[in-house]
Amino acid sequence: MAERFGGYQNEIYLHGLGGTKPPFTTDPVRLAESAREVVSPEAYDYVAGGAGSGATMVANRAAFDRWKLVPRMLTDATARDTSATVLGATLPAPVLLAPVGVQSIVHQDGELATARAAAALGLPMILSTASSRTIEEVAGASGDGPRWFQLYWPNDSDVCASMLTRAKAAGYSTLVVTLDTWTLAWRPRDLDRAYLPFLKGEGLATPLSDPAFRALLEKAPEDDMPSAILRWVSLFTGTDHSWEHLPFLREHWDGPIVLKGIQHVDDARRAVDAGMDGIVVSNHGGRQVDGAIASLEALPPIANAVGDRIEVLFDSGVRTGADILKALALGAKAVLIGRPWVYGLGHAGEDGVRHVLRGLLADLDISLALTGHRSISEVGPESLHRS
Ligand SMILES: Cc1cc2nc3c(=O)[nH]c(=O)nc-3n(C[C@H](O)[C@H](O)[C@H](O)COP(=O)(O)O)c2cc1C
Ligand SMILES: CC(C)CC(=O)C(=O)O
């Protein structure tokens, strides 16, 4: 059950009476700009940037603006339930932390800070393969918190199986397989700076500590880091997987499997046919295909086509409580949040991630109430108007 009227809002308003002063902006629009002042220019551009002209990033936001919420009155929404069941687990809200690699570029504590903040709120953190701390270190930081593992599916079955075994042993419950980044997009902001975080060794903690990966190297990474980095980059970019290869993952993972990066209805159907447990309708926050369909535009036809046969998650462009309600109304079971909490991490580490996420959860709770809903399950197509 949610705190009455957005607990974090109360804490902030009651600052003068012993509450909380927000450590930085609560405004989702100003958040990105404020982060520019606290992280390095190349890290900022890497996080904030998108593919090509940035058209898909813009389209992601414009799609949210085309849908409006239609509030209902006198519904007695004083007591609300923001909880949601996702792949069999009950979450305090239909919100997960999207997989984000190389977090040490914005804060030295990187994924450890994020894991602690997510665990404190009971929200699942999806750990990226390209994390700057190992699978095991992050599991330690997240304690009893829910944790999922995101796979960049390497072109080597031993390395892949080894990483899945490690993730399972470290208590990650759900596997998210990202399909849309089998090679890196044309990203002008990073190209202009000739900046690729891996080449500084960032984001390689998990592969560099992996016995199967190390067995492929002539010299240990400690003795020849450039060769190890190049070997990893060659394994996880330019991969040639197809739908026929999914059974390999099923053989090596006994929990739920979710495919991330689905944008076409037929791919969603194929995921159902392949026996997958979930999909994330996502265009990677506009970071991969410039000119790709806005993620929110892709959602309704996919949700209609697959119905209840697979769990539909959503990301790309979610910034506010209202955005979450819109995605749920259009068929998503839950949303993944990317850049906003990364900016929070850059500002203030664990506290910064918590600040951003608590703000989002309070905004969701208040938006749910003011639109006349008492629970997440009441949000549906009738809550929306397309303008
Ligand atoms: C800096 C950064 C790094 C990312 N790294 C990964 C990653 O390692 N694996 C992955 O599947 N997605 C990655 N993503 C994509 C996110 O998981 C998510 O799809 C996207 O950020 C959602 O859009 P939003 O930022 O507009 O919320 C990354 C996104 C950003 C901004
Ligand atoms: C390729 C990555 C390691 C990170 C990523 O997915 C991204 O930068 O969008």
Automatic annotation (TrEMBL):
Residues 20-387 form the FMN hydroxy acid dehydrogenase domain. Keywords: Flavoprotein, FMN, Isomerase, Oxidoreductase. Its cofactor is FMN. FMN binds at P99, V100, G101, S128, Q150, T178, S282, D315, S316, G317, V318, R319, G338, R339. It holds the Pfam family FMN_dh. Glyoxylate binds at Y46, Y152, R187, K260, H284, R287. The active site is at H284 (proton acceptor). GO terms for molecular function: FMN binding; isomerase activity; oxidoreductase activity. This is Isopentenyl diphosphate isomerase/L-lactate dehydrogenase-like FMN-dependent dehydrogenase. It comes from Amycolatopsis endophytica.
